[in-house]
Amino acid sequence: MRVLVVITRGDTIGGAQTHVASISKKLIEDGHEVKVVFGGEIGPFAELLKFNNISYLNVLSFLNKFSAKNDLKAYREIKEIITNFQPELISLHSTKAGVLGRIIAKRVGLPVVLTVHGWSFSNGIPFYKRAVSAVIERSLSFMVDKYILVSFYDSNIAKKIKFKVSKLVVVHNGVEDFFVKSNEEKKQDSTLSIVMVARFDNQKNQKLLIDVCKDISGIEISFIGDGPLLEDIKLYSNNLNTLCQINFLGLRLDVKKLIKDFDVFALISNWEGFPISTIEAMCIGMPIIVSDVGGAAECVEENVNGYIVRNDDKEYLRNAIIELRDNKSLLQTYGINSREIFLKKFTDQVMYDKTKLIFKSVLNNK
């Protein structure tokens, strides 16, 4: 099987980029040929691909924003890549790649699998963007052989706006099992340490977590990530009189190694697809606190491995944090359960096996 994978951005590493690298690596290990195409400048994503011996090309004119001049140039360049590589199937990721990639694939007569890492018309996104995106997606849906949705939430959205149910398949994200049991016992501390790994932008809600924890003693919050709202949140935090300790650790490349030193993983958001950061935390056995947005809560079993915060419910979030602070036995139980759920449902092998079956079914139905 020869697969061309196209994703819009290569200047960052987010959930979609991590997913692409994981699937591509598994395909290559399984004896298939893969080439990844991404837009814009070469950045950390290229380093990730290079590290995993995945062949890639970057198309400078293929940018996140729509531009007639650049898009026409990108169209020609990607079409030339297809001519040279001769793929049997095109795997598309992200909105812009999904639009341009489908048009090219239709032109050259290749089957398309589009992986949706959260619709651009989900709740939480501004109304006008949702409306325009929904119209575009509906109008191009006939060009897709199969949609892979990373959450049941996204699948249900597609069904509501009358996508063909036969084209929709849910495959949750998965990550490699990187957990290594340490011989060193974790330092026992009465302080509950909470970590949130997320960009500081309109999608995330670090401010809500700060507002809830500011009056709770025995709590330490650490934020990992950068983004356009980082300085605003820092300033807001510094102007508060808080009982808890708040740390801003910036963008880190050693997140998997770093988060194992914390007690609880939190992801408080305004909208989500199916966040990979949460299942990475489950991999190493952490209790989880997530917002009930998008598919974020689909890896959490309430009162089994964590808590689901609905409608920015500050009181519920506060009670969850206090309960974990005061009940070390519960903290340990939720962590063990997270690890077990991860191994059963969210490894990269589970994700890959399901994805490969979809690719093969599309090729068999050409």
UniProtKB/TrEMBL annotation:
Record Pfam families: Glyco_transf_4 (PF13439), Glycos_transf_1 (PF00534)
Stretches assigned to the Glycosyl transferase family domain: 182-340
SUPFAM superfamilies (UniProt xref): UDP-Glycosyltransferase/glycogen phosphorylase
Superkingdom per UniProt: Bacteria
GO molecular function, one term: glycosyltransferase activity
Domain Glycosyltransferase subfamily 4-like N-terminal: 13-176
Stored Gene3D superfamilies: Glycogen Phosphorylase B
Entry protein name: Glycosyltransferase family 4 protein
Lineage: Bacteria, Pseudomonadati, Bacteroidota, Flavobacteriia, Flavobacteriales
